Amino acid sequence: MTWDIFTVVGTIAFAISGAIVAMEEEYDLFGIYILGMITAFGGGAIRNLLIGVPVSALWEQGEFFTIAALSITAVILFPQNLLRHWPVWGNFFDAIGLAAFAVQGALYAEGMNHPLSAVVVAAVLTGSGGGLVRDVLAQRKPALLRDEVYGVWAALAGLIIAVGGAETPAQLIILFMFITMLRILSYKYSWHLPKRTVKF
Amino acid sequence: MTWDIFTVVGTIAFAISGAIVAMEEEYDLFGIYILGMITAFGGGAIRNLLIGVPVSALWEQGEFFTIAALSITAVILFPQNLLRHWPVWGNFFDAIGLAAFAVQGALYAEGMNHPLSAVVVAAVLTGSGGGLVRDVLAQRKPALLRDEVYGVWAALAGLIIAVGGAETPAQLIILFMFITMLRILSYKYSWHLPKRTVKF
Amino acid sequence: MTWDIFTVVGTIAFAISGAIVAMEEEYDLFGIYILGMITAFGGGAIRNLLIGVPVSALWEQGEFFTIAALSITAVILFPQNLLRHWPVWGNFFDAIGLAAFAVQGALYAEGMNHPLSAVVVAAVLTGSGGGLVRDVLAQRKPALLRDEVYGVWAALAGLIIAVGGAETPAQLIILFMFITMLRILSYKYSWHLPKRTVKF
């Protein structure tokens, strides 16, 4: 139940983030809906594909589609001066989505007895795969691969679940809050991973 | 039988459109064939993936591969002054492909008892998914997400089929002609969906 | 056994090539690992998808993941003056990977009694699909579609296997060496396929 609330928050955050990227790129209304839906559901679809759940399991999430579509509609109708606050609120919601989706993705993969590497990948892809596809379709360099620390927190959630570090509902909620907080701190204080560049 | 003709026309149109994008981007011969084939068959592959048909069902369409490969070869050999007419003819053929593929994709998904949302998505992806992958591989912003009204007509076809608005072969042919016509009008009169942009 | 060595060499070469592209694009450490892993395993994942093997078969390759991760770590730690030699050595290793993966992909598809076209596609995708995804995620025009002759050699390997031109281990090793050599020559002498461009 509590968990469902986080998933709803995450779905809304991801749908809105896709819609806003489409608006920034001057895509049309159809493009805004498509990019919003792909950002919200793309991560789960890729995760299903990689861990061996039929991708078509997507279609059982009827209410989530409705929630995502309504969120996108709301963003389209929002006056510009309300949208201005998105970068602040958006990152807060997005952090909740990242953490909730990462935890769920990892639990999913672990429930199928996949090895540690698959659990971590499932956490990362469920948490951030939608944003990756969003960036590719908007012709942007994927934020996941170069901006503030993001995917690493999803990987950390996966790792902790894979080694049995969080199992009871209470432990999972604590893990969720911990990951959410780390992501918010990363954004707020512009934490970056080191880079190693090369030129030939 | 009539239906097969539309599919053939659509396959040819999509294969040629991929080949021409590759030629515009100065890809080599191998790239021209690959992009042509991906545009012709990519939409169906993604649809299969999302609605739960094995993607490998692709390989049963032997003759269509041959047709697509021959079309691409023809385009490569065409003199430049014939190719000049492509933007006009190409959009006509492409409209037939969009409508034929959208109707087929929707029927496919409906035959598997998927919910309305899946039927609409299957129509959109089968009709326009190949063009989406084509644009990503050519490093272009997807035309589907921002140019004249395109994907919406595929979605409309899916919606009409999902609510039982076209079931007999005669009704389906009428739907097909209706969608083709709407797409041709969109292109001819540069119909655009509204945009909602945002800047931060 | 011999075969395993080639696969290991190919995995290392592909992982390093992805990591180096990420470093060139100034992606962060997380991005470097992700792009390296996707380049090493993406081709096999796409091939599995298209020929009907569960994509989740990926997770059975535990040691290869470790090898790829260690290779990426090594590249990150390498001093700049050693990395300078990568373009030369890299192409040599990459040619081994292309040939080894193409042969394996083709054998895989043939073992499932797929038609000739699927065997050729499996060879091309296993050999070069990882590089294709790498380029899309780095926002580059795919090298596969326009640079020196590359994918054609994978297709040739697939074709020879599909028509029964190489079946015994000895024949397969000869085919592997032949394809590796053709790719090295293509790079060394800048062989290009003809292009056919068009402007409207």
Automatic annotation (TrEMBL), chains A, B, C:
Matches recorded under InterPro entries: Gly_transporter
Mode of membrane association: Multi-pass membrane protein
Domain Glycine transporter: 5-78, 92-163
Residue ranges of the TM segments: 6-23, 30-50, 62-79, 91-109, 115-137, 149-166, 172-191
Keyword Cell membrane in record: yes
Keywords: Cell membrane, Membrane, Transmembrane, Transmembrane helix
Subcellular locations according to the entry: Cell membrane
A UniProt-annotated Pfam family: Gly_transporter
Keyword Transmembrane helix: yes
Record-level GO cellular component terms: plasma membrane
Primary subcellular site in the record, as a coarse category: membrane
Membership in a protein family: Belongs to the UPF0126 family.
PANTHER family: INNER MEMBRANE PROTEIN, UPF0126 INNER MEMBRANE PROTEIN YADS-RELATED
Protein name in UniProt: Glycine transporter domain-containing protein
